[in-house]
Amino acid sequence: MHLDLVPVWTVILGVGVFMYVLLDGFDLGVGILLPVRARRRSRTLMMNSVAPVWDGNETWLILVAPGSWRRSRSRFP
């Protein structure tokens, strides 16, 4: 029995990209709103709310990048 891994990799990579876009949204929103907020205390509060999970969202990129390279390795020398 031959197992076709293309659908499996497609789902894994799709979930990885979706999770990155979903979870990185509030980071980008804070970055957009940061210059608008005039008070230093307000800006500090915004940065402190993002700080614990700042790098955790990029973990999904670590899943997607090697996975997409591995999936189409014959196309990239």
Description:
The structure is a single chain. The protein is an all-alpha fold and 77 residues long. The chain has a domain of 29 residues. Helix content is 68%, strand content 0%. The chain contains 3 helices and no strands. Helix 1 packs antiparallel against helix 3. The longest helix has 28 residues. It is rod-shaped. The two termini are 31 Å apart.
What is the compact description of this entry?
By secondary structure, the chain is mainly α. It has helices at 6-33, 40-50, 59-71.
SSE blueprint:
Layout: H1 6-33, H2 40-50, H3 59-71
**Structural Rg:** 18 Å
Mean pLDDT value = 76
| Run of helices and strands | HHH
The helix/strand class is mainly alpha
**Low-confidence runs:** none
Task: Offer a few descriptive terms.
77 residues, 3 helices, 68% helix
